[in-house]
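[Meeting: bench + compute handoff]

Bench side (C.D.) handed over the final construct sequence. Compute side (W.E.) agreed to return the predicted structure before the next meeting so the bench team could plan truncations. Sequence as handed over:
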Amino acid sequence: MQNANHQLAQTSLLGVAYMVAGIFALELMDGTAKYLMMDGIGPVQILGIRSAIIVSLMLLFYVKKRQLSQLKPSQPTALMVRGLLGFLAPFCFFKSLQTLPLADATVVFFSSTFMITALSWPLLREKVGPHRWAAVVLGFAGVIIAIEPEGGGSLISYAYCLAGSLAYAVLFLSGRMLSKTNSIISLVFTFNLGIGLVSAVFMSAVWVPMALIDWWLVLVCSLLALGGHICLTTAFAKAPVGVLAPFEYSALVWAVIVG
């Protein structure tokens, strides 16, 4: 019993490390995306190109290794639905960044911590003790006091951010459920493929010409997203949601610095 508890603690610690690393990568990605949108490039265009780069890189890598089967999901329908719905999380957050400061948007996006913690019991049957709820509630209160959000931006931007946080919560809870029967790589691949398919539908209507520097920034954005998605998906596969949720607040440090 003691060995089992020790192993669970080690696995949870590893999950936390992946969580913090993934959030760091995604905050840098958000900052890069905001810079691109300040240059007039819309969220759909960024997501479409980003997904095309990520899917292509993953295909090339696993074809070269002759391990293409690792990308094949064991539940293709469930994973594709997850990927299609997953479009909403980055799209809504990127839309909010068009008018909201990065730090303010991050504070609102932290509502996903409550959603993940609250939904982890009915969906995953994971125990969420009072100390974890206290960490989430006190952490969020501390974030609001520390950052003093200015309230800049329109109400619709805050609504986009809140919708994105709900999509994020559902996305990663579903990832934890599906990780029991699917590999981390197949989860990341189908997620980005789904985003790419949705973006492709609207791409021609929103496309604007891009300078060479913008293409390089989208490539950076894609690599950061790929690394962040792998880290977060791995984190939720290794550790209980209630353990990981409070560590989302590490995004605040990066959001303030990048913003």
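W.E. noted at the follow-up: The radius of gyration is 18 Å. C.D. will use this when planning the next construct.
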